[in-house]
TrEMBL record, chains A, B:
Family in the record: Belongs to the HrcA family.
The protein's name: Heat-inducible transcription repressor HrcA
Cited Gene3D superfamilies: 3.30.450.40, Heat-inducible transcription repressor hrca homolog, domain 3 (3.30.390.60), Winged helix-like DNA-binding domain superfamily/Winged helix DNA-binding domain (1.10.10.10)
Role of this protein: Negative regulator of class I heat shock genes (grpE-dnaK-dnaJ and groELS operons). Prevents heat-shock induction of these operons.
Keywords on record: Repressor, Stress response, Transcription, Transcription regulation
Gene Ontology biological process terms from the UniProt entry: negative regulation of DNA-templated transcription
Signal sequence, start to end: none
Annotated HAMAP family: HrcA
Domain Heat-inducible transcription repressor HrcA C-terminal: 103-321
Species, as recorded: Streptomyces radicis
Gene Ontology MF annotations: DNA binding
Record lineage: Bacteria, Bacillati, Actinomycetota, Actinomycetes, Kitasatosporales
Alphabetical list of InterPro entries matching this protein: GAF-like_dom_sf, HrcA, HrcA_C, WH-like_DNA-bd_sf, WH_DNA-bd_sf, WHTH_transcript_rep_HrcA_IDD
PANTHER family to which the protein is assigned, alphabetical: HEAT-INDUCIBLE TRANSCRIPTION REPRESSOR HRCA
DNA sequence: CCTGGCACTCCGCTGGGCTGAGTGCCAAGC
DNA sequence: GCTTGGCACTCAGCCCAGCGGAGTGCCAGG
């Protein structure tokens, strides 16, 4: 176990490094933080911290830099989430409140997060796996061609054209529409399949095929809609911390374009509380020198989706975590209001 | 007027510079292109071209680099659009054909363009200003609360909740739905307003308020839907040509996040044919060292939206123009099929 | 266990010298 | 009058050596 002071030294190193982006030496440390000990003592502590793998030297005779492990300890033990100031909170709230629809909410959230953290923001659309059916509509486009429209309680609308095996009368259509709605409105997506399984049986033989087709199309839509979409923003912020190289930012940009990667990344986060994944803790290769700070958000108690930011491992964790948490909270509120 | 050979020299310079990314000198030119004249002659020609502002020297005793004006001349007079190879075409077609819905078409198009041109691709969603109404649906959510669903011929679905001034009966609802559809299905958005203006008059006094409310909501949706959305991709390609600096790519990333800027950029393009805007021809400040190659596409004869790529002024114009044009053509086909 | 001292390391900056590609100009030739 | 070879000149980029400074590790004394 590291002594209290050594932890203090580690904290100081992380803070200074995050601020200056330069390896920090023993002398500078004692000056900028009143550690009450001499540089020499700090040097001993640093040697110990390095021994344990919390910090490293870019080269001999340079200062120390935190390792992923060091940041991990910092985040877990040494840092408190920094709450936002009241004006900031108010600004967030009013900015989000003026959103007109779901797309707008997500769009604004992304911009907000990117601006607050000055990093790349990622916001997942509210997931539909826990959302419920608000309404299903069936429209005849042609005698044997229907349009299926699904409306969810999160405000999304999905439509799909269904080609029927046989012509389908207007009365049958109205019948199916009514029965379908009476059975599944208000139900969760995952609960729908058993509720409609026997529906074809109650129709005439000639319509049965069409009903089955419509149902399987509906179920497909439900499954597909559970697939998650997301929005990213603030990529220009990447250039801030890539004084190093285009080499650094290229893989990150690539990873960001792979929605699958991002979804997986967010998916790995805990459902509640802020999750921080540091450097190599991220499975994806292009993101091994970045950290991901994410959190679930939702309109009620349950998290229906995640949001977060991607930035250099050398980031202001307390501030970022605070911003992410606050934004998630307010987005949740906004969603709940609709 | 520049002599034939001088134009040839300019073409050679552009081609070489695009290939090597390095200022090109007189000797190299005579070697790589059989100009049938000596370096000294080429030097004279270059001096003339520089005099006219078509090329420039980064510094004395360096080779020449084309200016925006030089590229302009190249694009207008010296270059032919390079058609894609048959296998390429086939690949495009089959890749786009497997798209399942509009989002997917646009998404695939973006990826395709980015990959083909190795640059940043921008695709505007098919504009609705020229699209037509396929169906309007009205659903009662509560006695005085309706949901309005608009389905367009481009496959987009938009919905909106309408709060009514008074309860609205199921029969009135069915009535309104039927009349609305019979009047505006198949009509263009822009033609809708006059067609529905007198609709409230034919309803009972008690329902008139609600009908008006629904109509204004519908018209609003039509207008809003005319606003254009777009998708971008391939931002990682920016790093390829920014060996120079993060300084170069930052403003570009910023501009790319401003949808307004991009829409304006695409909007400036001609409706038919490939448009190329080079360097300072782009109004936006962050894009003065990039070129935008864009083209309209559409399901029929009319262009309903634009797509294009953003890249360094030093780009392979013939190839890029060919790719952009080909992709637009195939996307149009795909859209027409639906 | 802390501290001051000391020798050592090594990155990063600076300046000089060289090289080579490329130019502009000129006088001669076709 | 255009083209050509010759020639002197310019200048970015590279290599190298020297150095200054920040930082370290170690040690002996408090």
């Amino acid at each position: 176990m590291l002594s209290e002071r050594r932890l203090e030294v580690l904290r100081a190193i992380v803070q200074d490094y995050v601020g200056t982006e330069e390896p920090v030496g023993s002398k500078a440390l004692t000056e900028r933080h009143n550690l009450q000990v001499s540089p020499a003592t700090v040097r001993n502590d640093m040697a110990a911290l390095e021994e344990e793998g919390y910090i490293a030297q870019p080269h001999t005779s340079a200062g120390r830099v935190p390792t992923d492990k060091g940041y991990r300890l910092f985040v877990d033990k040494l840092a408190d989430v920094k709450p936002l100031s009241t004006p900031e909170r108010r600004a967030i709230q009013s900015f989000l409140e003026s959103a007109v629809d779901l797309d707008d909410v997500v769009g604004r959230t992304v911009r907000l997060l990117a601006q607050l953290t000055r990093q790349v923001a990622v916001v997942q659309y509210p997931s539909l796996s826990r959302s419920t059916v608000r309404h299903v509509e069936l429209l005849a486009l042609a005698p044997a061609r229907l349009m299926l429209v699904l409306i969810t309680d999160t405000g999304r609308v999905e439509q799909r054209v269904v080609d029927c095996p046989a012509p389908f009368g207007e009365t049958s259509l109205a019948d199916l529409r009514a029965r379908l709605n009476s059975r599944i409105v208000g139900e969760r997506f995952t609960d729908v399949p058993p509720l409609v399984a026997d529906l074809p049986d109650s129709f005439d033989a000639e319509d049965r095929g069409t009903v089955s087709t419509v149902l399987s199309s509906l179920l497909e839509t439900l499954v597909e809609e559970t697939e998650e979409r997301l929005m990213i923003g603030g990529t220009a912020n990447l250039t801030r911390f890539a004084t190093d190289f285009p080499l650094t930012i290229r893989p990150v940009l690539e990873a960001l374009e792979e929605q699958v990667v991002l979804l997986k990344l967010l998916g790995e986060a805990k459902d509640s509380g802020v999750t921080v994944r540091i450097g190599h803790e991220n499975a994806h290769e292009g993101l091994t020198s970045t950290s991901v700070v994410s959190v679930g958000y939702g309109s009620g108690d349950e998290a229906v989706a995640k949001l977060g930011v991607v930035g250099p491992t050398r980031m202001d964790y307390p501030g970022t975590m605070g911003a992410v948490r606050a934004v998630a909270r307010y987005v949740g509120q906004i969603l709940a209001e609709n």
